[in-house]
Every structure is written in structure tokens, then in C-alpha cells.
Amino acid sequence: MVRHHRESLVFTLVVTLMALVGAGVMLVIIALSGAPGTLALATVVAFLPVGPLVACFLWLDRYEPEPRVLLGSGLAWGAFVATAAAIILQGVGGLFAGFDEVQSIAVVAPIVEEATKGAFLVLLLWWRRAELDGMLDGIVYAGMVGIGFAFVENILYLAAAYNGTDGLGPGGTEALTATFVVRCLVSPFAHPLFTAFIGIGVGLAVGSRTRGGRLLALATGYALAVLAHMLWNAASVGLTGNFVIVYLTLMAPLFLALVGFAVWLRSSEGRMLYAALDDAARRGLLPATDVPWLVDLSARRAARRFARLHGGERGEEAMEEYQQAAVELGFLHHRYLRGTPPPDFAVRGQTFVARLNAVRPYISFPGQVVPTR
Fold first, then answer.
1. What is the largest CA-CA distance in the chain?
2. SS3 242
3. In this model, does residue 243 exceed pLDDT 80?
4. pLDDT, position 283
5. For the chain, what is the radius of gyration of the CA atoms?
6. pLDDT at residue 373 in the model
7. Rounded Cα gap, residues 226 and 198, in angstroms
8. Would you state the pLDDT for residue 241?
9. d(CA 267, CA 291)
10. Alpha helices in 32-134 (DSSP H)
11. What are the backbone dihedrals phi and psi of residue 226, each rounded to the nearest 5 degrees, phi first?
């Protein structure tokens, strides 16, 4: 656990430092992109799709909610670190390699941007692997990074459209509206979609039994992210035919397929969690009668309401603590049953069981005897 704490601290310091540096770079770039009023308008408009997108990924992340600090770190990484690094690297590439605008958009941008976004997921896998339980966690973190990246990128595109510096027209409200429709209404999912492939690769790497398998999963996820991004960007500059046709025949079906896959993963997590906790209960790690109240989401909410009714705020907090520890134990036990337990499996498992035993005497589920305090 000492090593886990040290790695968590290193991860926090590295991400925080890079986010601060990236934020400074992006503030300068944004400040040079237009008048303050234009930038304020572009920021407000670019923020509109952020809330709904974040809510969708939080909905996927219901069985074992990821730490809000880490999710926020993913947003900050995408918004500041990935955008700043991508702009600098693409600028250097254009300066020394002589890429023209079409090559930069269709080829260089996908390679660089997916690398800078995916770096956050690799850091998670390296230093905070305990927070990753599979592909759904990878998709959720990738989504947060993609949302942050798209938000800042959209500010720049919207400001350029309004100023008329995007080379597409005289600018103004009409140009701003057109850009908003394309980037914020028609395709707000683009960057989360691309980076989700890296998230899936990271999720597969967590469960891989070999180093080669982990590297293959990461490389494949990155390659698919770059490929999808290239197809999208190539369509935007007219290299793959009509943009609308590419959108309807390729990108929209790909997006719907990923949504269906993520929803299926969410449902399968419930089944997996029930099986793992049922096995843990047979081993005496927790009461078998508690398992239904720990897996079904509506039952979880009912248990928290029951705890608040009979124990007030402290009772509800105790129930939340018990449910969270049990779910984390369930995911850990699942990896043990699959034969891919993490190196600190025993220590983490004992910690979760200790948390359960410390809280269990003070809670009850509907239909059980309420403990006296």
C-alpha cells in the first residue's frame, strides 16, 4: 500500500504540473485568437455540449464510480495538456517537415492528437492501475479526455469562425452558428469516440496476462483511434468524398456501435459483479443476503434511502461506504477468479474486507433489523 500511495502521489504531481503548464500555454494561444468579447462568446458556446456529454459518461460509470478527482484530471488533461502539446508538435512538424495544410489536418493531426490524449490513459495504467477494472473504465476516462480536448479546440474554431480568420468566409454570427452546428451539435462526440479506442485498449491491457499482450492492446487501440480520426479529418477536407455521406455511412454508425458496446459493457458489469460477490459471499467475505442490495442500482438507491430514514446522514454515509467497499471488492475478486489479480491483490482485498467489517454492524438493508446505536 505504501508503493500504491507513492505512485498515486507521483501521478497527481505529474498531471497537475503538466496541466498548469498546458493551461498557461493555451491561455496565451486563446488570448491571441481574438478580442476578449469574441473569446467569451466562443467559450460559452463551446461549453454547451460539455454538460450533456459528461453526464452520459457518468451514467456509464454507475456500478463503480471512478474518483471525481481523476475524472476531472482527465478533463483538464484533454483541455490543456493534450491541446497544448498537439499544437506545439504539429507546429514543429509543419516547420521542419514541410507538411501542407491538408497533410497536417488529415495525417499529422490524428497521429499527434491521439498520442497526446492517450498519454493520460497510459499514465493511469502505469501509476493508477488499481482504478482501472476493464474496458468500460477505459472508455469513461477516454471520454473525459476527449471532452476536454474538444471543448478548448472548439473555442479556437468558433473564435476563428466569428473573426473570419478560418478562411471560410467573412465571419460574424452566421459563421459562428454554422461552426457551432457542425462541431457542437452534429459531431460533439468525435474526440471522445476516437480516444475511446485507446480506452478500450487500456482496459484490455489491464486484464492481459502478459507484457506482450498489454503492448498489443495499447498499440491496437491507438492505431484504431488514429485511423478513425484520419477518416474523419480526411472527410472534413474533402479527401474521402462528400462529408455528409461519410458522416452518415461511417462515423454515425461507428458512434452508435460504440454506444451499444458501452451500454452492453455496463450491463455485463452488473452480471459480473453479482457473480464475483456471490463467490466472495460463499468464501465468507460478506453476507450473501447483502449481495442483491450491492449490485442492482435501484436496490442500491433504496438501501441508501432506508439508511437515511433510520440513521440520518451518518447512516446514509455508512451505507455508501459499505456499498463502495463491496463493489471494489467485487471487481478485485473478479480479476482473481479470471486469473489476472494485480500484484497487491491480497493487501487490497484485506483492506476492502476490513472496511466492510468495520461498517456492517451499523447498517441494515430494507427488511432487516435496524441496529441500535
1. 75
2. coil
3. no
4. 94
5. 23
6. 54
7. 9
8. 60
9. 16
10. 36-47, 50-60, 68-76, 83-97, 101-103, 109-127
11. -65, -40
Rounded-to-integer distance, Cα 291 and Cα 275, Å: 9
**pTM here?**
0.89
C-alpha cell at 267: 450491463
Contact 352, 322 (CB under 8 A): no
> Which region holds residue 241: left if phi is over 0, alpha if psi is between -120 and 50, else beta?
left
Per-residue confidence band for 369, with pLDDT thresholds at 50, 70 and 90: low
Q: N- to C-terminal Cα distance for the chain?
A: 33
Please state the φ and ψ torsions of residue 240, each to the nearest 5 degrees: -120, 25
Is-contact 78 70, C-beta < 8 A?
A: no
For the chain, the residue count is 373
> What does the block give as the cell for 166?
478560418
- Between CA 263 and CA 59 the distance in angstroms is 10
- Amino acid identity, position 196: A
- Write down the H helix ranges in 128-210: 135-163, 173-180, 190-206
pLDDT at position 239 over 70: no
Closest CA to 203 of 144, 265, 269, 133: 133
Distances (CA, A) of 112 to 21, 66, 189, 221: 18, 27, 19, 15
Vertex 242 angle, CA 235 and 260, to 5°: 65
Name which residue leads in pLDDT, 361 or 343: 361
Measured distance CA(40)–CA(57) in Å, rounded:
27
The confidence score (pLDDT) of residue 51 equals 95
Cell of 14: 505529474
Residue 171 pLDDT > 80: no
How far apart are alpha carbons 207 and 204 in whole angstroms? Answer: 5
Whole-angstrom distance, CA of residue 321 vs CA of residue 312 = 14
At position 269, the amino acid (one-letter code) is E
**φ, ψ for residue 66, nearest 5 deg:** -75, 155
Residue 238 DSSP label: T
Cα–Cα distance between 175 and 196 in angstroms, integer?
Answer: 30
- Averaged pLDDT for residues 321-337: 93
> What pLDDT, on a 0 to 100 scale, did the predictor assign at position 1?
54
- Residue 13's CB is within 10 A of a number of other CB atoms, namely 10
- Name the residue type at position 361: P
